[in-house]
Amino acid sequence: MRVVLVDPSRTVLKCVTRMLETGQHEARPFCDGHAALDYIKSDPGVGALITSAELFSMSGIELCWETRLAASGRRPIYILLMSASQDRHTLVEALDSGADDFISKPPIPEELYARLRAAARMAAMQQDLIRLATTDPLTGLLNRRAFFDQAAEVSARAEAGAPLSAIMLDIDHFKRINDNFGHDAGDEAIRAIAQALTIENSIVARMGGEEFAMLLPGRSQAAAASAEGLRQKIETLQIVTRSQVLPLTCSFGVAEWERGYDIDRLLTRADVALYAAKTRGRNRVVIADASLAVPGYDGAGRLVRSRMRATEIGAATALVDADITSVGQERIA
Questions:
Q1: CA pair distance 238, 177, nearest whole angstrom
Q2: Where are the alpha helices (DSSP H) in the chain?
Q3: What is the pTM of this model?
Q4: 49: which strand partners?
């Protein structure tokens, strides 16, 4: 296990580092809490933090708190507060601030190893829970909730000027696939599409049913070419079922981040472009532009909350509430 060790004493650091290495752990020693925190944020392989309660630039309690915030439920990290004091208030405050346990300073080797074995067991359980909470069980892609968590981070960078594009896609004639070949074939088609959606440094999720979403940080106009490459790749896929070959195609909508957008606005534009691709014959890529109206938004990109008629894509004519967190249009299978 990779362990970040923080203590103001170089003697203590040297002693505990030797213990950790003897126990087949990787030690990353620091005297400064801020430097240790920066390292933890940059290295997702860190499995445990052992910090002294007494630090100079920030307290051990603060480091426990900041480390737990940095992990933010996405990565397991076990936090041990190390202190020569048995002050009950300090120990309670440490536990309330995100520490999992505490250990005496200097630690006894056998106790240290036992604590780290417990940390490994806890990390394995936490990793399973994180996987279950953030991934789609059928495809292994991000689920909707995890997608929007990561979208919040990349959209913040986009607001600061970084390029960002979105791709929305779904499987053409998916209802027909389920009806004619069975739901097992439909599941196999969904898994095959998920495996095909590989673009470097992209955020990919199954949004539900046969629909997928992708965010491409750092890309703007190149996103359309990426979508076309995926379209062609998917077109070559073939699912064999009941001794028949099942062809697959997808329709794609692409949108580029513009000034004043939020993540809902970006995805809405990509979704509108997706439905334009459906109405224009499917198995194609459509890029969102000024000619594609975006329901529920004014010209400045602000969300409008009112009652309005759904955009007539396909047969959608019912009145809907234009709280456009989702597009609010009838799906065209």
A1: 13
A2: 10-22, 33-42, 60-71, 88-96, 109-134, 144-159, 174-181, 183-196, 222-235, 263-279
A3: 0.70
A4: 4, 79
Q: Is residue 106 reached through a cis peptide bond, with omega within 30 degrees of 0 on the bond before it?
A: yes
Instruction: Tell me the two tokens of residue 188.
Output: 């196999």
State the number of CA atoms in the 13 A half-sphere of 223 facing the CB.
28
Q: Which two tokens stand for residue 77?
A: 């990290």
Q: Out of 66, 93, 188, 210, which one is annotated catalytic?
A: 210
List per-residue pLDDT tens for the chain, 333 residues long. 999 999 999 999 999 999 999 999 999 999 999 999 999 999 989 999 999 988 888 999 999 999 998 887 678 899 999 888 777 788 888 888 889 988 988 899 999 999 999 988 988 888 888 888 899 999 999 999 999 999 998 999 999 999 999 999 999 999 999 988 889 999 999 999 999 998 889 999 999 999 999 999 988 778 999 999 999 999 999 888 776 888 899 999 999 999 889 999 999 999 999 999 999 999 999 999 877 765 555 444 444 433 222 333 333 323 223 332 233 333 344
- Considering the domain 2-134 in this protein, what is its CATH number? 3.40.50.2300
User: Is 159 an active-site residue?
Assistant: no
Say how many C-beta atoms besides its own lie within 10 A of residue 164's C-beta. Answer: 24
Torsion angle (degrees, nearest 10) of CA 301, 268, 286, 293? -50
- Distance, CA of 116 to CA of 124 (rounded, Å): 12
User: What residue segments make up the domains of the chain, in order of their start?
Assistant: 2-134, 144-321
Architecture of domain 144-321: 2-Layer Sandwich (3.30)
